Amino acid sequence: MTIPPVSLFVDSANVPWVERRPGVFWKTLWEDADGRHKAVLIRYTPGSVIARHRHIGDEQIWVLEGEVADDTGVCTAGTYARRPPGCVHTVTSPAGALVFAVISGPTEPV
User: Fold this and answer.
1) What is this structure's pTM?
2) pLDDT tens by residue, 36-94
3) Which of 16, 37, 53, 59 could cysteine-pair with 83, CB 3.0–4.6 Å?
């Protein structure tokens, strides 16, 4: 008999923040075996910038606190945004932000 998968509950207080880029910290809440699909909390410190890059996979974000901006506009607290594969942008957060993201692939610099 096969045992079906069960829910995964993560106590995010016990997951460390990891600085992925200067001023941009990730808490990886879940990552699949191939490392492409993941759910992360992203903390942007005030003035942080993610250099111009292209999304190879899909990225969906929900801004929990503060705001992040890119070439298309500003995403404020309570707002959802999607970056489809092929999307090219630079991300800034002048005042800082906390974002929940679901990612289905890497990015590459452009």
Assistant:
1) 0.92
2) 999 999 999 999 999 999 999 999 999 999 999 999 999 999 999 999 999 999 999 99
3) 59
Cα–Cα dist 55/105, whole Å? 7
Report which of 30, 103, 24, 13 is spatially closest to residue 66, judged by C-alpha positions. 24
Give the C-alpha separation, 84 to 56, whole Å: 8
Strands (E), the chain: 18-21, 24-31, 38-44, 48-55, 59-69, 74-76, 80-83, 88-93, 97-103, 107-109
Choose among 79, 82, 12, 68: nearest CA to 40.
Answer: 12
Selection from 71, 65, 55 nearest residue 96 by Cα: 65
CA atoms within 13 A of residue 101's CA, in its CB half-sphere: 27
The domains found in the chain, sorted by start residue, are: 33-97 (2.60.120.10)
Three-state DSSP class for residue 15: coil
